[in-house]
Amino acid sequence: MSTYRKPKKSDITKWLIFIGIYVATITLTSFLLLGAYWYVWFVLVAGGLFILVLWHKKSTAHHCPVCGDEFEITCLTNLFSPHGVTKEDDGWTYLKCPQCKNRAKMKILVKENKKNHTTHN
Predict the structure, then answer these.
(1) Residue 81 in contact with residue 95, Cβ under 8 Å?
(2) How far apart are CA 56 and CA 44, in angstroms?
(3) Would you kindly state where each structural domain of the chain is located, as residue ranges?
(4) Which pTM was predicted?
């Protein structure tokens, strides 16, 4: 069972590091592989993007600002939906809410597993 929470600065930093590693990898390998081995570079780009989207899908959920519903989306929806960040460091994804059918910028939430969550007294 999962619960959801607002992303912390550490979550955002982790996301930026993962995206940075992906961009750096495809940039560096483009100099080495794009000439004679363009197909290897393409596989690296596609495989890396798939892993990044799968990880993001498994670690996040979304919150509808209209009805308050919290929901998860598919990898394909995650890949093709517009994403962004507000001035308040809140991430969003433009989606259609499955509950109220509203199309809006849904806030990104972080999934937490209850079994890994312990209370400290």
Answers:
(1) yes
(2) 18
(3) 2-116
(4) 0.76
